[in-house]
Amino acid sequence: MALWWSRCCCSCSARATRLGGSWLTLGAGTRAPEAAASISNFPGGSLNLSFPKLNSIFWRIVARFHHTTAQTHSYGKIVSDEKYKDPFKLGRKDLKNLYEDIKKELWVSTTELKEMCEYYFDGKGKAFRPVIVVLMARACNFHHNKSEEVQASQRSIAVIAEMIHTATLVHDDVIDDANSRRGKLTVNQIWGERKAVLAGDFILSAASLALARVGNTTIVSVLTQVIEDLVRGEFLQLGSKENDTERFAHYLEKTFKKTASLIANSCKAVSILGCPDPKVHEIAYQYGKNVGIAFQLIDDVLDFTACSSQLGKPASADLKLGIATGPVLFACQQFPEISAMIMRRFSLPGDIERAHECVFQSDGLQQTTYLAQRYCHKAIQEISKLRPSPERDALIQLAEMVLSRDK
User: Is residue 45 helix, strand or coil?
Assistant: First the structure.
């Protein structure tokens, strides 16, 4: 059995412990209550998985989000995980002075605007998106011609991705009237909503200028799609659907547009810059898409299970905003009373408390975690089609780490 799977099982078991359940166990016979997972020489061989018996409608909806790529050769050998156990350490070697470079892009003479724009670029985050982007760049470059260098234009995509992401955080905090982010006060709490909106706009405009300097119209088209998706995703979050089928499809589409699109299209952009093969572009896109959706699904689980200090923002924030995420939608299958709460956006006294209670009395947290596993497995299948390299294997490990993160 490949090393990556044993590590993944350990990660998921740790997750089960945090959720307070016993639905996933360790060992060669790792299993869920209603299903077992078996791997044969993966990623070089076949992948046979069976997942818990969820509502079949939900899984049909999930299937719509899995686009089948053209068949490519799948490489089997994995570089020893002892040497590359920290994907972030491997990725950061190409990201030295990342935040200093971003601040150069944000140069402005107005002191207050400068302070607002630089507020979140303090170097305290993991730089999850830039790390994925530079690892993908190296993996695609090596796959194409065994190049071990990252092009300046590819690194620029990592910088731009972090800028777009941070601009959306500033805007999201205004929309949500949030008071804390990454363990400190939000921009809107310190400088007010109007100035926060302008700061987010300025970061986006600076990212657009940096994108234009890349000088590739295809790349401009790919990354401007991200901004369109972000806006459409925000509108999707403001609405809801009446029946379960439409509601779950709505949730997954919103999750893709608000979170996964940036990762997917940034990965696609660096693959285009480094390799002419459209099949590789699709592999990069699908990896980013599936990891991005899994990342948000786990984030939605953590909104219920992690404390505020772990999250860097208030816990159960989505319910308080009237938003029904995966754990709530799955819980609704066992507690139909939640449906009416969803439609009124948990606005009546006691709605939030009751929905929270139903989530923990149901298997909503477990089902959402299983769904994240499914997306991570798909991401690993995709990236394993590339030629073996330390960066490709780091991307495999990073997909596993998404499942085991606790903040």
Answer: coil
